[in-house]
Amino acid sequence: MKIFIIDIDGTICENIPNELGAERMRHAKPFNDSIKAINNLYDAGNYICFFTARTDEHEEATRDWLKKHAVKYHQLILNKPRKLPPYVEYHFIDDAHVKATTFKGKFSNFVKKNVEVEVFEE
Questions:
Q1: CA distance 113 to 48
Q2: Where exactly are the structural domains of the chain?
Q3: Average pLDDT, stretch 2-31?
Q4: pTM of the model
Q5: In what helix (H) or strand (E) does residue 77 lie, and over which residues does it extend?
Q6: What single DSSP character describes residue 76?
Q7: What local confidence, expressed as pLDDT, does residue 104 receive?
Q8: Residue 55 confidence (pLDDT)
Q9: Rounded-to-integer distance, Cα 9 and Cα 62, Å
């Protein structure tokens, strides 16, 4: 089984900037195909963790939204560092095997491809 660490805004619902507040987040448009795909991953026995730049003040609204839209998950982690200029990408560094996937608007089957990656020099 796998652990999926998934963003919220722009991945399972429309992107709501933190500055628009919790009330706006409560009414975010869901991406139903994404929710269905995540629920299928959950039902298959995978661990679902949402990791979001929403802050502690957005927790209640976020959990309410997830419940309202029947999103299945195990864990919610708030306060992910925000990707604001001059920062343009995330680098996850871990001693465990990590695969990163950039969400392009649709969940589909995973396929293996040979691509260029950045690694630490030995």
A1: 24
A2: 1-122
A3: 94
A4: 0.87
A5: strand 75-77
A6: E
A7: 86
A8: 95
A9: 10
The residues, ordered by sequence, that sit 6+ positions from 30 with a Cβ below 8 Å of its Cβ are 12, 13, 69
From 3.30.70.20, 3.40.50.1000, 3.90.190.20, 3.40.190.10, which CATH number describes the 1-122 domain?
3.40.50.1000
Residue 58 pLDDT greater than 80, yes or no: yes
- C-alpha–C-alpha distance, residues 45 and 68, integer Å: 22
Nearest to 105 by CA among 12, 26, 41: 12
Place of tokens 């722009």: 10
Sequential DSSP letters for 14-45: ----GGGHHHHHHTPPB-HHHHHHHHHHHHTT
Residue 113: pLDDT over 80:
yes
60-104 residue pLDDT tens: 999 999 999 999 999 999 999 987 777 778 888 888 888 888 888
Please report the sign of the dihedral spanned by the C-alpha atoms of residue 32, residue 98, residue 3, residue 60. negative
Structure tokens at 111: 């396929």
